[in-house]
Predict the 3D structure of the following.
Amino acid sequence: MIAEIILLYASFAVVDLFDKFLISKRKIRPLQYTFYTVVTGALLLLAWPFVYQALPAKFIFLDVLSGAYFGLVMYVFYKVLAHGEVSRVVPFVYGLVPVFDVVISWATRRSALTVTELAALALLIPGALLIAYRPGKYLHAYLALTVFSAFLYSSYNFLWQYGAQVGSSLNNLMWNRLGAAAVLAALLIIPSYRKAALAVGHIERKAHTGALFVFKQALGGLNFVLLSYFLAVGKVPIVDALSGFRYLFVFLLALYFGWRHRHILDESADRHAIRLKLAAIALIFLGTIILFLGNQ
């Protein structure tokens, strides 16, 4: 299971770069990107007849609620991604997700805070802060929003796991996707939201951008199905702890494209920035490994 999760995070890293490119270079605004990502993701419902199972009303409600919540999670993340380097945003957000996992587990009395978890937090938090550091811009406007994004992801994972206790993970995922798409589609009755979500005049190279978006959606949809399965059958802290591989792959891909293809990705590639990012990734990676071993 561990090897499969690592490969999954490599695929997530590819999607992260597509997200950054489409938002920053092709000028798709975060609200629009969230709308099209979530609504087109509802195509997954075509597979529902093959996995459908009756569920108690309580768990249908939880699945739909987690789906609606997922729309907010994605919007905040894309908002942060639009204003930061992908090699900083992804490790910052996903480096803090295990921190919030531990805190939420402790606050809800699902588990006691252990010495191993404290040791992991002592590495994860400094690592996340270090990768967010930019000379003269440490307390930038989106720092709080980035931390909030990590909290939303962590709380979503717990909500999803709680709602997916009964029945197959795929069947629960269908209710989840239905809730996500239905809420964003229903919001179209608000004129200002409808105008912001559907405007496409400012998007560059629309046909080519659309093709890239469809490919990204297909890959991202597969990733989401697999991640939802792993979250439903495994421990949330273990799945999140292995996300260290995701931002390692993001860093390597961003370094390559930021250095050789700056028309695709704008990344700080000077030696000082690379050293800071590597040091931060080392701290976060070590923290996730400690947290992973502590949950065995």
Notes: Residues 206-233 form the longest helix (28 residues). The chain has one domain: 2-294. Residues 2-294 form one domain. The mean pLDDT is 86.
